[in-house]
Amino acid sequence: MATATLTSKGQMTLPKSVRDELKIGPGDKIDFVKKDGEYVLKPRTARIADLVRVLGIPPVARALTVEEMDKAIEDELAEDDERIRAGR
Length: 88
Fold this sequence. Notes:
The protein is of the alpha+beta class and 88 residues long.
């Protein structure tokens, strides 16, 4: 069993064995989830919204329809085909 000590500032250092098992490091977020009267530590995984923000992709006002997705794929394939035929 791993043990951590709480400081006067309410901070603790997670033991290396726990950090290694959770695959977490400096700057990673950890959620404390209450379950059956106990807390479980869960590393926070990146959400799609976080990745979109980091990549600088502007938010979409609405979801695309299947037809719009099909058209976008068709357009990309046509561009690829044109590029390949032109030898680029």
